[in-house]
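2024-03-11 09:14:02 INFO worker-7 job=invfold-0412 stage=load source=structure_tokens
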């Protein structure tokens, strides 16, 4: 913990601060910050400003680079072989629509509040939830997984089949943590140095890699259509297996959509670049939404090419694109090309994710929820240097020891939860304004709670019961509820520059779809989410409440006149009787 005075200046001061914790906690949980505060007071806590050098084409390249990584090369095979068959193409369309709905919600916030915090900053202006720390953990774990997968794809690109020899086994460590991947560590170190140097240069490197990667993807699509046969979209290799374009029906299409959706995760990192965008009102909508649309088209073409190359029941679940060319000796060289393309995709997605995670950490540091040291922006590079280096070390440490299978099981739940929360926050922001008698929060909160409950019921029926009537009633209830809300509750504010159209329908659809996708995750993902949330809450209670309180006291003292010693100020507050009325500065919600 930081010893910067106040609650942490001495054991006695900290003990008195702990006695004050219930009152401080209640005030911090019940307050929110405004967009103006995020853009001025909170942003100023980083010292130097980030450089505004990015344009819409940079954002499009960052979005494509962040999404088109290893995911599409892995999830497509499993989804097509076991769940959807050739109709996995429709699964990518459904997942793309869901991703686009969430992207719209992110875009409105990013335009109205162009700061580096992404979802953490957006939620601080509406609800007070613990999301930022979980999202950081999600980024670190997923980046470690992507870095370890680079070793495998790079080996495939150069024709080295047994990549396990590149990892060093350490006897005495538990299984899953005993294979050291030095290549993954080296990759993370190189990319950390790159993102610390300059965001514009990092964007330029990403653009070069993204263009090359797109070239490989287009090559795969062209070769797939040239070599493929249309009959493979209808006929399985084994006549015993179900045939047709959708051999497993609508159930298979939607189940596959829940799996392939994770190939779209990465566009949210683009919103964390908002503070470095030159013309946020025009560049951000084009960059975020445009990248999702382009990636959806590419994914559908790649899935079509794969399903025409081989019958769905012959698709390799682990490496579908590479193995699709192995049957014919004349085309085996394409497998190496696919490996090279996947390696470039991993580089781009990892760089974008590492840029995003550092900016999340920077803004969380501005709120004093974690030590303020993480919020510092280097005056020479204009980048959050401390956050970038610290998270790079954490990512490298996890990537060095932890097996890919363990890491994959832990990712995605935090990201989907944040997507769900951002859609809720957008509706609340549009329909509720503090202090207006005609803008009471209860109708909006009731709508959001009811919609989430219906979506949970739909997800439960889909996973365990599959009662058609129940599913239909849940869907109809969600539509009727949204219609009634849109008619009876007027919008309290309109966006000044760019806003999501057809409110509240688009945000409501995003809420429903994200809950549905959350329902498809395994038990271990929820267990990880619960454990880390508990750890984060404990840290919040013993550190964050008091550090953020001290920061607000210092700000209030500076505004009111010559500040008294902060230690004395806190001791006085801590010894006042509970019946006394204490005037405190307005708090900014960060939990």
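2024-03-11 09:14:09 INFO worker-7 stage=emit residues=591
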């Amino acid at each position: 913990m930081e010893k910067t005075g106040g609650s942490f200046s001495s054991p006695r001061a900290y003990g008195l601060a702990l006695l004050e914790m219930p009152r401080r906690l209640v005030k911090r949980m019940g307050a929110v910050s405004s967009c103006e505060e995020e853009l001025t007071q909170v942003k100023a806590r980083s010292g130097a400003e980030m450089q505004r050098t990015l344009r819409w084409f940079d954002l499009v390249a960052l979005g494509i680079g962040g999404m088109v990584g290893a995911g599409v090369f892995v999830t497509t095979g499993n989804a097509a072989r076991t769940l959807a068959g050739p109709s996995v193409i429709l699964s990518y369309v459904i997942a793309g629509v869901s991703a686009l709905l969430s992207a719209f919600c992110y875009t409105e916030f990013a335009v109205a509040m162009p700061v580096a915090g992404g979802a953490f900053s957006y939620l601080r202006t509406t609800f007070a939830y613990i999301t930022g720390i979980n999202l950081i953990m999600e980024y670190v774990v997923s980046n470690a997984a992507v870095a370890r997968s680079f070793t495998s794809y790079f080996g495939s690109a150069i024709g080295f089949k047994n990549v396990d020899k590149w990892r060093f086994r350490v006897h005495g460590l538990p299984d899953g943590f005993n294979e050291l991947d030095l290549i993954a560590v080296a990759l993370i170190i190189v990319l950390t140095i790159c993102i610390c140097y300059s965001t514009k240069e990092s964007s330029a490197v990403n653009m070069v890699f993204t263009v090359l990667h797109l070239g490989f993807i287009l090559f795969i699509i062209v070769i797939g259509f040239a070599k493929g046969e249309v009959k493979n979209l209808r006929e399985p290799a084994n006549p015993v297996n179900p045939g047709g374009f959708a051999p497993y029906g609508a159930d298979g299409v939607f189940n596959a959509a829940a799996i392939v959706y994770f190939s779209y995760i990465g566009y949210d990192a683009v919103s964390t670049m908002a503070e470095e965008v030159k013309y946020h009102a025009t560049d951000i909508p084009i960059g975020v939404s445009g990248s999702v649309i382009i990636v959806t088209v590419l994914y559908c073409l790649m899935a079509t090419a794969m399903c025409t190359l081989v019958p769905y029941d012959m698709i390799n679940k682990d490496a579908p694109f590479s193995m699709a060319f192995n049957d014919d000796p004349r085309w085996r060289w394409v497998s190496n090309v696919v490996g090279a393309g996947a390696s470039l995709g991993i580089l781009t997605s990892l760089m974008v994710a590492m840029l995003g995670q550092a900016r999340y950490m920077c803004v969380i540091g501005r709120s004093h929820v974690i030590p303020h040291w993480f919020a510092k922006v280097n005056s020479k590079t204009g980048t959050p240097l401390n956050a970038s280096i610290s998270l790079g070390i954490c990512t490298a440490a996890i990537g060095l020891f932890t097996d890919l299978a363990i890491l994959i099981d832990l990712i995605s739940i935090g990201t989907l939860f944040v997507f769900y929360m951002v859609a809720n926050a957008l509706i609340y922001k549009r329909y509720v304004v503090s202090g207006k008698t005609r803008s009471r929060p209860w109708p909006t909160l009731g709508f959001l709670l009811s919609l989430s409950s219906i979506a949970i019921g739909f997800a439960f029926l889909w996973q365990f019961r599959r009662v058609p009537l129940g599913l239909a009633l849940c869907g109809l209830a969600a539509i009727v509820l949204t219609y009634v809300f849109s008619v009876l509750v007027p919008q309290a504010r309109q966006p000044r520059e760019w806003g999501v159209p057809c409110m509240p329908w688009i945000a409501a659809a995003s809420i429903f779809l994200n809950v549905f996708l959350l329902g498809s995750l395994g038990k271990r993902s929820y267990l990880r989410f619960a454990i880390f949330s508990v750890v984060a809450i404990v840290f919040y209670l013993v550190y964050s409440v008091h550090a953020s309180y001290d920061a607000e006291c210092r700000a209030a003292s500076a505004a009111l006149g010559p500040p008294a010693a902060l230690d004395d100020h806190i001791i006085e507050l801590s010894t006042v009787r509970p019946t006394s009325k204490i005037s405190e500065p307005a708090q900014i919600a960060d939990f």
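2024-03-11 09:14:09 INFO worker-7 stage=report msg="DSSP finds 23 helices and two strands in the chain."
2024-03-11 09:14:10 INFO worker-7 job finished
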